[in-house]
Amino acid sequence: xxxxxxxxxxxxxxxxxxxxxxxxxxxxxxxxxxxxxxxxxxxxxxxxxxxxxxxxxxxxxxxxxxxxxxxxxxxxxxxxxxxxxxxxxxxxxxxxxxxxxxxxxxxxxxxxxxxxxxxxxxxxxxxxxxxxxxxxxxxxxxxxxxxxxxxxxxxxxxxxxxxxxxxxxxxxxxxxxxxxxxxxxxxxxxxxxxxxxxxxxxxxxxxxxxxxxxxxxxxxxxxxxxxxxxxxxxxxxxxxxxxxxxxxxxxxxxxxxxxxxxx
Length: 263
What we know:
Elements: E1 2-8, E2 15-18, E3 29-38, E4 51-55, H1 66-85, E5 89-100, E6 120-121, H2 125-134, E7 145-154, E8 164-167, E9 177-186, E10 189-199, E11 207-209, E12 217-225, E13 236-238, E14 252-262
Parallel strand pairs: 2-9, 3-11
Antiparallel strand pairs: 1-3, 4-12, 5-14, 6-10, 7-12, 7-14, 8-11, 8-13, 9-10
């Protein structure tokens, strides 16, 4: 299909974006129509394209229950990432992030709950290294490799009106990734920030998506890898599916983040 990907404009001052009060964003959007390939049949790889669709059944009964997600889902995700990647250790960071398409009454009502509407990579190299050091498993030696993963699950039934698009890491040049400030704000107060990356257009980019996601599968994608022999980082963005029926329920999803270590 062809759909609009919200890139950022080149040649701007360093941009800032906020978890909740998007009216304060300084991101300059430059949308471009791009081909987005439905990729269930492609057998994509975490270490080649940087993302993969993985079967996974969770024991969580209610993903809106933060306590249940913390008690049950964090361990599930750590085990999943360890099994899929072969890492020696995996640390799940933070709690599950619930997001809702704008047609949902919950979009923006919860902390950091809107879809990400411009192409980005969650962390820069400097931020990834800092986060890896901060979460380093106690008693372990210095790692020979670390990698950051996002595990994304659709909670609303198919079809999803605002699915996730992922860009093949091999098609992204360093100059397409622009450092920006990601700021986590609550009730008008800036709580903390780090350096992320926003994405400028290139005709070389190859975008992918997965149609009609179910609860018993997840998209795993890489947001940073310290080993240059593997896919480095996957730009991603929420986009409007032009073929989704008007009456489809608004997309709801949960994402979990994890850092994998090899010693």
